[in-house]
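Progress against Task 2.4 (sequence-to-structure conversion) is shown through the following example record, which the project officer requested during the mid-term review.
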Amino acid sequence: MTRSLQPAARPENPRFSSGPCAKRPGWSLKNLENASLGRSHRSAEGKERLKSAIDKTREVLGVPDDYRIGIVPASDTGAVEMALWSLLGARGVDMLAWESFGSGWITDVAKQLKLEDVRQLTSAYGDLPDLTQVDFSRDVVFTWNGTTSGVRVPDGDWIPAERAGLTICDATSAAFAQKLAWDKLDVVTFSWQKVLGGEAAHGVLILSPRAVERLESYTPAWPLPKIFRMTKGGKLIEGIFRGETINTPSMLCVEDYIDALDWALGLGGGQALIDRADANARVIADWVAKTPWIDFLCPEPANRSNTSVCLKFTAPEITALDAAAQGAFAKSVVSLLAGEGTALDIGAYRDAPPGLRIWAGSTVEASDLAALMPWLEWAYGEALAALD
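Structure tokens generated for the chain above:
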């Protein structure tokens, strides 16, 4: 490959990190001037802002009216752990994993909760497990979008409407960018710092009526920490789902989340966000299609993420290297781009195969991705020349 000159155009915003993700276009600290600071989150004003965040979440995502939405501690991780520790154990569970975070949930269920009846359906990075093998008479835990592999479930058609078990879905890099099949999902979790580019440390937990029924009829055999408890006296603590959070939230982060939701509503709501992410992913796909030395980590187009886009180097000069050398090559490409300020934090996840991971979620501008593609070619040429 011939080394090329540096491109003339640069992305206006070089932030393509897969979490925390880029702030919305036009974001400014001035947008947070109305944050309820120095006040109790249990004051009338504080509870109003928290409830506003919940109500706008319902509107943007199209969450059914009879589903509960709660703001919970510890980001998406906290929301998933609340669900696993509070709901599992009533029946056997199928755990699905095709990347790092799904594998982490398997570890928690098998080695921490130590449930006896656990089936693991796994696949390598880039692929999905055989979804036809999932048994919905059991509880099912899965990620909608594998943030570290760039692989998502294509839709909810593989989940039956009539099922005995609960479906528990980690949707943290899918919510606000991919259409979720609400009638097929009993628990949905996500964090603000992903698709909407909010600030970290807070998670959202969404429960279907079936999940609420499980909470009110089943008591786990193990003790639950205070921040996991969602029932009292066998009844759901409804206040959690009206903005009366379990622990003290950052009202500055709440205001930032509301600002992002208002931006989404101004665009036209959830479908507009999905359209933006799809358009962003197409920019990358069009470039990959005409670039011989790179490809998607996921070979199946229907399963490719439109947010955490994972790419691998395919040129013989690179694939002939051992794993350590391939990793070093990928890091050199990432370092060159960061050094020029044209792409920040686009290295593959530490547990994933060597390559690139470019965030294309709804807060990213397609024009910035278009400007990035020639820079990827430049950095690849520079890194390849350095191997000689």
